[in-house]
Structure formats: C-alpha cells, structure tokens
C-alpha cells in the first residue's frame, strides 16, 4: 500500500484559530507553530514523557489500540494518528504492520522526518483546521491524549467532524485519554485537580475526557464502545506505577508556572503543594483512569 501523501487536498486553512501558517508535506518543515491550547510546552522532557506514557499505556491495555482493527492492519490499511507527538505510536505500529501505511500529523515538528519506516509518513498541520486529506480515505484514525489540545467547541465542531469526513465508511475512530481526576487522591492532588479544572475552564477545554457518550452524539458513528483501565500512580503500583507517576510529575513544574501566572495560587504555595504530591500519591495508592473510546463510521 502506497504511503505518499499525494492525497493532500489543499494547503489552505479554514477557521481562524492558531498561529500555524503552512505546512510542507515534502520537507516536513514546520513553519511556525504556537499551540496555545496544548498546555505542556514542547521541550526535551515532553518527548521523554510522551514516550514513557506510550509504553505504560500499551502495557496496561496489552495493545496499542482497542478498536477491532487487527485484521485490517495485518492485511493492509491506512492509518492516521492525529497529534502524533514524537511519533512513538506510529513507529511502534508501522514496524509491526508492514502491509499498512501510517501517517502521523502534529502541529509541532517533534517526529522523525528522515529516519523512519518506509510505511510511515508525518505531516505538520493544525487539526483545528480542515485536515489535508481526501474524504473517505483512512481505515482507522487515532487520537491519543488530545483532550487538552482543543476547546470543547473545536473538538465537537471541527476535529471530530473532520475525522469522520476523512474516515472511510466502515472505518474506525479511536480516542485515548486519561480522565481529569485522580482515584484515591489526597488533599494535595485533590487541590491540584481542582486548580486544573479552573484553568481548563478559562481555556474552554472540555472538562472531562472524551467518552462514548460524546461519540454517541454523532449520527454517523455506530458500534461505539469504551474501555477503561486504571493506571497506578506511584511506587505502590510497581514499575508501571513508578513510570506513570514520572510522566505525571514531569508535567507538574509547568503547572506552577502556568497557574501562578494566572494567580490561582502564590508561587510558594503552589511549589509546596507540588512537592508533597510524590509521597502523597504513593501513600494513598492513587491512580488515574485511561479511557479508550472507539466507534465505526456508518456505511450510509
Ligand atoms: C499530549 S500530546 C499527545 C501525543 C501523543 N498522541 C501521545 O499520546 O503521546 C498532544 C500532541 O498534540 C499536538 N497538538 C496540539 N495541538 C494540536 C493541533 N491543533 N493540531 C495538531 N496537533 C496538535 C501537540 O504538539 C502534541 O504532540
């Protein structure tokens, strides 16, 4: 199956949000991107965080996807990962399912542009705009941890409809996200979650992770299901808990910057709160739910 992006429909943006100018699928050059909604900035720790998280979630679910697409992948199909980050998900799958072709799309150039499997391609594009693909093109579209990247309006009125447009009839859509609350939280993580909620409200981001109830609102989708796994946070959960806590803790200092900037809490107080979290999540046996929601595009 060819993996050339000759399917690019146009490079024109629709909508009015974002600072992304243009993308170039030939060179993979990111021209300018300033993703104001993705609340953790692109920096080295973020690459590492996303990679660790990928392997933790794959281990917990025992697979990179939950939609029933294994046979499609084995026989050869077209796959798109929106918000692919460093491309870990794409690289992992494309080296196993060599008959299928994979495209990773991200607003930032974090993915490999030269050294990659032949059946993997990457493009820089803003998913808040019209996606640069023909209608009815992909067999499977994946969104991993994208809940913080779009406003609720963008999610419901641009991103999901665009995914469905470029999905083939009978093709599968899947979203994977962690829920916005901590199970068995202590006072510090509870406080942090409630500060996070306030912060997300100011950005008009959906207050909860994308779920089957959201997908069921779409009349073009059928066979909708949701799988939830609890991922331990902290050493009480063994190696998985330690690694997952690391992905959580790496992101916290940014919280200090953002939340104190917004004056939710004085810097010292926020710092003190965050310093107490590693011990607290371990003592409380805290965990986070990871949700996979998937559905199939109707044939008619
Ligand atoms: C939390 S990371 C998730 C990365 C990867 N999917 C994963 O599960 O590890 C969110 C990714 O979405 C990208 N992103 C944010 N806003 C975007 C947009 N408007 N269009 C395309 N990608 C976007 C970010 O650059 C980042 O790589």
UniProtKB/TrEMBL annotation:
Domain annotation Methyltransferase: ranges = 79-171
- Cite a single GO MF annotation: methyltransferase activity
Which Gene3D superfamilies does the entry mention?
Answer: Vaccinia Virus protein VP39
> What CDD domains does the entry give?
AdoMet_MTases
Which named protein is this? Methyltransferase domain-containing protein
Question: What organism is the protein native to?
Answer: Diversispora epigaea
| Upper taxonomic lineage | Eukaryota, Fungi, Fungi incertae sedis, Mucoromycota, Glomeromycotina
């Amino acid at each position: 199956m060819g993996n050339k992006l000759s399917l690019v429909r146009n490079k024109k943006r629709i909508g009015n949000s974002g600072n992304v100018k243009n993308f170039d699928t030939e060179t993979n050059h990111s021209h300018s991107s300033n993703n104001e909604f993705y609340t953790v900035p692109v920096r080295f720790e973020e690459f590492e965080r996303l990679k660790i998280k990928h392997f933790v979630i794959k281990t917990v679910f025992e697979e990179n996807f939950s939609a029933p697409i294994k046979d499609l992948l084995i026989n050869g199909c077209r796959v798109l990962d929106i918000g692919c980050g460093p491309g870990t998900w794409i690289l992992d799958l494309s080296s196993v399912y060599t008959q299928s072709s994979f495209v990773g799309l991200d607003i930032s150039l974090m993915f490999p542009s030269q050294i990659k499997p032949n059946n993997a391609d990457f493009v820089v594009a803003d998913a808040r705009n019209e996606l640069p693909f023909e209608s009815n093109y992909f067999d499977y579209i994946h969104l991993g941890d994208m809940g913080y990247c779009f406003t609720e309006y963008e999610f419901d009125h641009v991103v999901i409809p665009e995914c469905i447009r470029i999905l083939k009839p009978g093709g599968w859509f899947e979203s994977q996200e962690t829920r916005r609350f901590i199970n068995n939280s202590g006072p510090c993580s509870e406080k942090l979650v409630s500060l996070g909620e306030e912060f997300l409200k100011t950005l008009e981001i959906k207050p909860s992770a994308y779920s089957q109830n959201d997908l069921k609102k779409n009349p073009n989708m059928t066979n909708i299901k949701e799988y939830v796994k609890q991922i331990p946070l902290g050493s009480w959960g063994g190696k998985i808990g330690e690694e997952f806590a690391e992905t959580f803790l790496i992101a916290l200092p940014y919280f200090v910057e953002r939340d104190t900037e917004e004056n939710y809490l004085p810097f010292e107080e926020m710092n003190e709160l965050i310093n107490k979290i590693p011990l607290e999540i371990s003592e409380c046996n805290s965990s986070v739910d990871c949700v996979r929601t998937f559905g199939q595009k109707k044939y008619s």
